[in-house]
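Quick question: what would this complex look like in 3D?
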Amino acid sequence: MNNSALPRALSNLIDAFGALPGVGARTAERYAYATLKGDHGKAVQLSTALAKIHNSVKLCPKTFALIDADEEVSPLYADPERDRTVVAVVEEPFDVVAIENTHQFKGTYHVLGGAISPIDGVGPEQLHIPELIRRLREDKTREVILATNASVEGESTALYIQKQLEEADLEDIKITRLARGLPIGVDLEYADQITLTHALNGRREL
Amino acid sequence: MNNSALPRALSNLIDAFGALPGVGARTAERYAYATLKGDHGKAVQLSTALAKIHNSVKLCPKTFALIDADEEVSPLYADPERDRTVVAVVEEPFDVVAIENTHQFKGTYHVLGGAISPIDGVGPEQLHIPELIRRLREDKTREVILATNASVEGESTALYIQKQLEEADLEDIKITRLARGLPIGVDLEYADQITLTHALNGRREL
């Protein structure tokens, strides 16, 4: 940024927006200028939300989902209507939101806090796997759904957890994985080979 | 946003990010989650910059560029080394930064505050044109560079200002426009017809 051409407060704001992921110089300028031109109330709203965020949110000690700082455990775990004997294991907190939005799942969640990725320096010891096993035993879980991403990292993480669960010798536990296949709205000719292979192998009788 | 799956502070932050231009639900989630995972200091930096922005920045009463609230006029206008007899007329404050970054211009600026656009409800009376004419007279300007955008709105604005300047009957004033032609790095075959027409008509002898 050429600072002499812009007031200091504005170039500070541009720099601060530029620290967000994937935000380059032009986007940061656009955000800053829109904020300046826009409603003062909106700027204050974002400012307040940012100032509060780190002290208002913590990890649930049981499921490692993000929860309000004044809550003890995740409301999705505490809720008596949710089935604790079915646990969906996901990589990141927002994956919980994605599954919740389907309104199809009445079990509980366990957030790993990432996926095994040697390139990014993430090993299995950084994920909440021992806590998962302890919890499955306590809650007498019947089914673990390994709902990690359909990426190389997600697949290896699922495989690793599957082995750990087998070694842990939990009684009568079913380990499942989300179905692989064609996503809605995709033409066969544009589907990649691996997806199509999964779709073929996983075909169902009507 | 399904709020029950996320702590309130986090969904507030997502909503606030979502108010930025061009930021949809997924991007807002990504910004919020990155902020939460990231350094507390960075969140505070953005928070502070946002809280200050509206009270720290104002428009220069002479050039309508953005300036610090404690400055009287734009430093680019006040600077005795800048030539007040050459004025570049631009649409928006960031256009000043773009021209400054070339390090080729030693004149001064005049920010119109937009371009004539009937669709967006912007008429010539909303632009700082009377102030421009007053200023050109006061500073005995020799050259006005109409540096509006190469868009339909920018072209009509330039044409309108040109007529106003002719009617104002300023003495010995030269009205110029930024050159149109091929941008650097573009192959002839990919250039659009209008650009190529401009490039042909504006060809220069070597």
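Answer marked as accepted. Chain B touches chain A through 58 residues (CB under 8 Å).
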